[in-house]
Here is the input.
Amino acid sequence: MAIHAAGLEGFYARMPSDRPLAPPPAQTEDPAIFDLADVQAEFVRRDGDGLAAELLVEGIHCAACVWLIERHLGQMPGVRGVQVNLAARRLNVRWDPQRVALSGLLEALAGIGYAALPYDVDAVEGRLQRTQRARLYRLGFAAFAMMNLLWISIALYTGADRGEHRDLLYWAGWALATPTLLYAGWPFLQGAWTGLRHAHPTMDLPIAIGALATYGYSTWAMFLGGPQAGVYFDTVVNFLFVILVGRHLEGLSRRQAMSATHRLMELQPRIATRLDGDAAQRVSVRSLRTDDRVLVRPGEQVPVDGVILEGETAVDESLLSGESTPRARTSGERVYAGTQNLDGAVTLAVEHTLADTALGRIARLVEVAQGCKAPVQRLADRIVPWFVTATLGLAALTFAAWIGQGFEIALMASVAVLIVTCPCAFGLATPMAIAVAAGTGARRGILVKTGAALETLAGIDHVVFDKTGTLTRGRLTVVDSSWQGVDEGSALAAVAALERRSEHGIGAALVDYAKTHGQAAAARTVEGFRARPGRGIAGTVDGRAWVVGSPTWIAAEGVVHDPDWDALRDTHETRGRTVVIAAVDGRTVGLFALADRLREDAREVVAELDAAGLGVTLLSGDREAVAGAVAAELGIEAVVAEVLPEDKAAVIADLQASGQRVAMVGDGVNDAPALAQADVGIALGSGTDVSVECAGIVLGRDRLGQLTEARHLAAATLRTVRQNIALSITYNLVMVPLAMLGMVTPLLAALTMPLSSLAVIGNAALLRRRVPETLPTGPAADGVEPTAVAAGHAEVSPWR
Amino acid sequence: MEVIYFLIPLMILLGLVMVGILFWAARSGQYDDLEGSANRILMDDDDPLLPDRERRE
Here is the structure.
């Protein structure tokens, strides 16, 4: 068998011989098939020199399970890292394929009572549905038994327990309680048994002991107890029912927490057109391999990440970058899965598919964040087994203290203690809050990579901004135009009429400019339109031949070089502006200068940080004068200009050395070291480059205003976590002593226990409402001076 | 009161039928999407797919 890979024997040797391996639960397929390279290709990714996979694990329902799985797998040889996502019941495992096989890991999981499946979005939905339905069946059956037991109880309490029908009613109760315990209560019995056998007690243990003890006593009382002994079948059934309701609601909210990530992955097309020689064939994206050639027709979604081999087109990358202006892409350039191919057919060489694509990485960032544990959470994981043990001890103590009053009273009091304690609420406190925060953020375009990043962001003292692309738009706007020998208005309208047909960013800037000058382009007739992505355009407008574009494009179109414009061109170019020349009938008539401008919401965000008492620093690789002008515009006092990328990190480190907790907001590759150095790195933008890998939080909608929202989210999350922990501790401090004093009946205990879990979940779910969504501020009218920021264009060629 | 020996089993049987109906409903997917159906009823099948088409006809 393939599963007997070298590392596996080591695992068996490590297992204590007196504790037999449990029979694996129903595994749908032989785990050995997961060792086949072909099968693994679908869900295993490379991680350094090892492998990593995402597994869906059935049977996780408590923080104790998380702890058990992580400890159990973590001690296996060859396993490099294990992380369980409680909210999504997912397991992220990294291992060394030389020392252990994936099937070995799956079998080890089965040994401790968890069935694992490779995580695949399709499979997850099916699996979730199955568990959810099974839970619903159990819940339905328990509800039926409970309702019937209620009228039996009424009859017994109102005197039937002394009448002739007593035995019949007892029998009916027993007939209802027995299948309820065995069928509806099965998950608890199973969970308790697994926990016991591996000496890692979970919350199922007190529940199972409570139910079994009450049921066992009632059965004994019914058959042998004589007329004085009470029968408590209604207690058993009621409390199983109430706990099942709690689990069901928990399951529903967990599923909701997951759905945000799923939606991200669903944005990728599943089918691609593969070229084999000259034949085109529709195939599943799953079956594509690196370097396959794929044809993307105009109007189609790009199915994979790849490099263009042939053709040129404009691509709408707003899904990834938030920027609505299409980008020109030509041979040798990269396009990303999920983006929209607009106007040209291109052939791609496949680089990445599915989960490895830029989009897949974004989805994974969210998942990692949802599974990531804040330091508070790790504490909770360790506490649960002790908590359960303490509960059992307290129950035994209660029993011993009350036994003098009679067996029945002692039993009821100790059962109440067992049921009332709830480390589940404690275990759920942090992960639920973080899962909801990550999900809420994702829906609003704020991707939270780690729970720790959120925690830190809530307590930050100083925010450092990068300039280009962060405080400024990173996108071109016309800042100046001059004309000679033509009517300015009609010339602008003609240019706009041409540029409207171009999907390029500069075209959009020119059209916007014409619009703000009251020149609508619609009335013009355009003939013979030609465009060269990244160069310029040409066409006949109202009978005159126009050429608009870069100086080289103009020259290539046969426009005579006119030295009169050189001085003006030089002035703009030395200030880092981009120059676009317009010519008509072979003669240069106009010149546009384009530059970056401030983001509309930059001033607002800086003012808001100031008001909150946080320090703000502008950090830029640009010249002192330019950086200073931007800082003055925004009211930032601290400016550090002319820094190299590697020195940016040093600036952050200096701030940290002075005892401040620093958040860095940046967008480019040049900010990556600073993002990594900062206590929290916040990246703006597309999620495709290094800056995103280094940042803890990604603002995906390309709006600076989201920073404010992220800070609110962080503060609300921390508050919710604290509230949740306080809630569960208070609950236990109040209820456990009451139960020990015999003042809580088992039924009341069964009602309050899931209530405490639900209170914690509900409190976490409220997080969504506590953070107001900031709406994008519309493009500010002329109030904002189009500050020409000369910087940045040396780094970023506008003619992409 | 002998009728109770007949009525109690009958009631339990009746309850079991209800449970059976619940199982059937869950199995046929009626509990998989609790939000979709509430919205679906608001959409008419004969709504035009494109607002334009309505005007032309």
Observations:
- The mean pLDDT of chain A is 75.
- Chain A touches chain B at residues 129, 132-133, 136-137, 140-141, 144, 147-148, 164-165, 168-169, 172, 175-176 (CB under 8 Å).
- Chain A has 27 helices and 27 strands.
